[in-house]
């Protein structure tokens, strides 16, 4: 593996693990109805059954991210997380929470960068197998 490929791979996995930790914590907090986030999510207008379902989906997405060699499943997880942070941004604006909006923008940027690194890694791997 070339040095550039190794750098991209390390950067990709670093960001992927960062995303996995973020969404695992977020999903866990939603499933357990953590008092530091649950009331605010209810105030945003989301029903309790949706919050629980979202938490379960986040944990499933984290598992999908961490399983190697499942590009299509990773893409679906990244797409789901992208929708999540877009709606988190919109919800943050709805309750005038700049902190939630900033967090959503940061996570969105990390998601996009991770996705492009996934594509870059795939192109390197396809060149090796040809």
UniProtKB/TrEMBL annotation:
| Swiss-Prot/TrEMBL keywords | Membrane, Transmembrane, Transmembrane helix
Which organism encodes this protein?
Answer: Flavobacterium yafengii
Membrane topology per record: Multi-pass membrane protein
Superkingdom of origin organism: Bacteria
Q: Which GO cellular component does the record give, naming just one?
A: membrane
What name has this protein been given in UniProt? DoxX family protein
Pfam families tied to this protein: DoxX_2
The compartments listed are: Membrane
At the highest ranks, the source species' classification is: Bacteria, Pseudomonadati, Bacteroidota, Flavobacteriia, Flavobacteriales
Transmembrane domains' residue ranges: 12-29, 49-67, 76-95, 101-119
């Amino acid at each position: 593996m070339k040095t550039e490929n190794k750098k991209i791979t390390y950067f990709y996995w670093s960001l992927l693990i960062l995303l996995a930790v973020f969404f695992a914590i977020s999903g866990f907090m939603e499933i357990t109805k953590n008092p530091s986030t649950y009331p605010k999510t209810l105030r945003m207008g989301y029903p309790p059954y949706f919050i629980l379902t979202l938490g379960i989906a986040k944990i499933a997405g984290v598992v999908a991210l961490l399983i190697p060699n499942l590009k299509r499943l990773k893409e679906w997880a990244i797409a789901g997380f992208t929708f999540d942070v877009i709606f988190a941004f919109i919800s943050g604006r709805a309750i005038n929470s700049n902190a939630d909006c900033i967090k959503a923008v940061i996570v969105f940027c990390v998601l996009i960068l991770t996705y492009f690194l996934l594509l870059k890694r795939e192109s390197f791997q396809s060149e090796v197998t040809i």
